[in-house]
Amino acid sequence: MGSESSDRAGEADSSRPDCPRCDEPVGFVAVSGPTTASVSPCGCTVPAAAVQRE
Ligand SMILES: [Zn+2]
After folding, report:
1. Is 12 a domain residue?
2. Cα–ligand 1 centroid distance for 20 (angstroms)
3. Spatial contact of 36 and 29, defined as CB atoms under 8 Å apart
4. Quick check: is 1 in a domain?
């Protein structure tokens, strides 16, 4: 009774990585080179692999 396990509260975490430089939530990632990316709104340049999720 009452054991509903369809409440996935911890799944909204996968769409927004944090900036690896300043730890701000990343809103937008713009690839600026083969291995680098610029993140908004903080504006840091970070390794693309650090903010790409596949
Ligand atoms: Zn940043």
Report:
1. no
2. 7
3. no
4. no
